[in-house]
Amino acid sequence: MAGKRKKFAKTSKKSTNATTTGNDNNNNNNNDNVDDKVLKKSKAITDDSKNVWGPNTMTNEHPQGTKDWYTSIAKNDDFEFYYKKMNLLPNEEDFKKFMEWLGKPLPTTFRINRAIGESLTNVVKKQLHNIIDQLPEKMIVDGDVVEPPKPLSWYPDELAWHSTLTKRSFRKNDQLEAFHKFLMHHNNEGNLTRQEAVSMIPPIFLDVEPHHLVLDMCAAPGSKTTQIIEALHANRSNSNTTIPEGMIIANDADVKRCYMLVHQTARLGSPTIVITNHEAQIFPLLYLQKEGETERRPMLFDRILADVPCSGDGTLRKNPDLWKRWKARDGAGLHRLQSHIAYRAANLLKVGGRMVYSTCSLNPIENEAVIMELVNRCQGAVRIVDVSAQYPTLIRANGLHTWPVIDKDREIYQDFSQVPETKKKTIFPSFFPPTEEQAQKAGLKHCMRVYPHMQDTGGFFITVLEKVAELPDQIGKRIKYEQEFGQNKQDQDTTTPPLNDESSTTPPLNDESTSTTTTTTTTTQVKEKKSAVHKFFEEPFGTINEECKKDLDVAEAFYGINKEFPLREQMLTRSQGSKVLYFASKPIVNIVEGDRNRRLKIINAGLEILKKHDEFGESKCNYRICQSASQWITPYMTVHNTRTVIMSPNDLFTLLRTTEPLFTQFPKSIEDQLEALEHGCFIIKIDTSLKTSLEDANKDKQVETPMQTDQDDIIAQSNGMVFASWRGKRSIHLLVQKQELQLMANIFKVTIEHRKGDVNPKNYRVPNSSTESPTTESPKNESSTDAATSDTL
Ligand SMILES: C[S@@+](CC[C@H](N)C(=O)[O-])C[C@H]1O[C@@H](n2cnc3c(N)ncnc32)[C@H](O)[C@@H]1O
């Protein structure tokens, strides 16, 4: 596969790569309110994303964002009282440091997206090292010593970086200009994702492999989802064109935030993703049909991430406004929802599978208490995994074994018997710590706590769990299922035990309080509640019909797509006769095919691969290739087929510089190929090894050569790039969003020249095969029609 395959699936100029956040869970313990709060928070996240580099609250004009401002705002007596009593850090000095670091601005951290392919990853790393080499070891900005960016020691392959530099420092120090430009440029390009360091931890402990079926239960805005997608594409390299076997379902209860997920993941151009809109605690059981079997069987996941909604006090450095609002009851109010989600995760996990439970909260009621509740409820079927040997340079504290329960009036209870009747509606037995013996038996110390002062980050809680047996209430259901289908045989691979279905899962937690609880949301109430955020209007996905298959026969012949490409088998559509076809990995198609999976509320699945182009005029094939999927299909287009034209980086400059370059603007050999090409869609592939010979060819033709030797790194980025393009009468047009082309032109330092005759380059007119003029022959409004889709660079 071309090393640059992802390069062409980027839609994001300003990524909404906000890091994880807890819910804004003020003043109540009713889980139903989560949704409204989430909506508000979702707005906050969108707004945050505008501020691409530097702490979110930072502006240059306002004292907000200065060190002193942080120190002054970082105060909340209740918070300090609560966590002191919780004995979070028994050593007084450590607790002091913890409080002190919570009052400091959060450094900027970013991740190089591994999914961009090996060669581009190396180019980005090399550029970064070059910039850092030019910086002094220490710089003074605003009287403070600032250091050049450093890789996070614990993150694999130098892919995650940390910098104490902020927007403010960039503006105040000329030496930092190159670094600032690097960040802006690669962030816009989708090569980097800004993400809090601690938020990168859960996915790396999930240990995702390319064939895995993964569920990300609370996924929006999607920074961890993108990490998981990268792991599913881990085999992606220049030489490996294999289409991934695995899949990730990225789910969120908030439909608006699901669209943030669509946007965030579109940049990666992956056929492995499905975005769904369910409450995680009642995520439906899906059914897969294995090869050679006639019946569908319950589908269990290899990996599940439960990055649950939480009170979010681990994000105080990033969201200092939270200091004013922090309340002990915020965490308590989410405990039961978190427990339900964790139990549903355990339910949907394969035996032998791994799940990670995480929060950006420091509160044991949302963390260890939830884990203990899960372990107890699963009666040995789920165990906490000791991962202390993994990522040893990541500094972390052990999970707590004990903690008091403290209410809003600062009353402290050591066990449930001390709780007055009036408070039993809000304080549950599962809030309380286990006995020391139980904690040891469960391995509670293997939970991980990351505190701000340990390595200059936010706070996070992470626990890795493994399912070692079927859950007690799954066993009876499996036997019943096997009897029903006459398959009373043992599954050898442990992957298919039937389990709780949506309707029968997440029964109330097994604590005595459940029956007396009136204010806590039960599963039934959750299901019955039709909140506005759950309205779902998406057209369902389905497989393609016979008529469409006939069209695909034509497309196959037209583009010279070889039989190894699953053109019909891995194709989805939203309605028969729809203009768009989607390419998806096998398990996704399998799910969509199953009638029993109809209740799955799919927002998006796979990626757009073929689109009808009725309005484009003359072509033998009804479908054009979408830019987002061109990286996947191009390696399967036969070399001798004329619908792939190999060009040099010089030709790329010509393509970028001129909105619709004439065939005659290219070297003779390419001009001839373009002349010989039938009208319609084709693929341009950039090959940097053609550089020298085509420079020579350009000389003969006296074509300007914009390439300069000091641009080598940038030029290397173009190797393997593929562009869906349109062959007109005498000129060609890239089927790529206009803004993406502009961005590329910026990267390659090319000024776009609009040729005489480009009346309105933003709004091309429809080409007409009989009357088209060479200067205005491209598809109508190509860029803007695709703007909301993933059909982009
Ligand atoms: C901590 S954030 C997740 C952050 C995300 N994992 C990331 O890394 O970008 C929690 C998410 O849970 C969602 N949420 C809240 N209640 C939920 C529920 N019952 N089921 C599923 N998602 C829920 C919120 O909309 C929010 O997007």
Give an overview in words.
The structure is a single chain. The protein is of the alpha+beta class and 793 residues long. Among the domains are: 119-194, no CATH class; 642-793, no CATH class. The strands form 7 sheets. Strands 7, 8, 9, 12, 13, 14, 15, 18, 19 and 23 form a 10-stranded mixed sheet that branches. Strands 20-21-22-24-25 form a 5-stranded antiparallel sheet, sandwiched between helices. It has 28 helices and 29 strands. The two termini are 17 Å apart. S-adenosylmethionine binds at residues 20-22, 34, 38, 199, 217-224, 252-254, 257, 279-281, 307, 309, 337. The active site is at 360 (nucleophile). Residues 14-32, 513-524, 767-785 have a biased composition (Low complexity).
Low-confidence stretches: 1-62, 487-499, 502-534, 696-710, 757-793
Shape: globular
What's the total count of β strands?
29
Bound molecules: S-adenosylmethionine
Main sheet specs: 10 strands, mixed
Can you describe this structure in just a few lines?
The chain is built from 28 helices and 29 strands. The strands form seven sheets. Strands 7, 8, 9, 12, 13, 14, 15, 18, 19 and 23 form a ten-stranded mixed sheet that branches. It has a five-stranded antiparallel sheet with strand order 20-21-22-24-25, with helices on both faces. The protein is globular.
Task: Name its key features.
28 helices; 793 residues; disordered C terminus; disordered N terminus; 15% strand; five-stranded antiparallel β-sheet; alpha+beta; binds S-adenosylmethionine; globular; tRNA binding; ten-stranded mixed β-sheet
